[in-house]
Histidine kinase (Mesobacillus campisalis), 124 residues
Amino acid sequence: MAKKILIAEDEEVLRMLITDTLEEEGYDIDEACDGEEAYQLIEENEYDLVILDYMMPQMTGLEVIEKIREHEDDSKKNVNILMLSAKSQKLDQDRVMTAGADHFISKPFSPLALIEKIGDILDE
């Protein structure tokens, strides 16, 4: 069975690029265009990996992580989270990791690097 990944990215072109790239690799993808939609999907589904953009409308990626990590349900609370961000200063990365992200990739990134990172995360 294909691994299920949620991509939460407010830039439509980038979200489509990531989605297309990962679908070609055989992953089952859900998409969200803002943090609120992402959190709603996390509440309704089980994911092997959640990929969040840092700066999104409604709720930032950081706020989504904090809500996930506070969750009562361990299967949701313990989901793998990969943060994508143009905010790549050490302070920003530390803030993201402290909030509960498992992995961080700076924008811009290569699709190949993303595929490799996801493969490592999901042990494929």
Remarks:
- The chain has a mean pLDDT of 93.
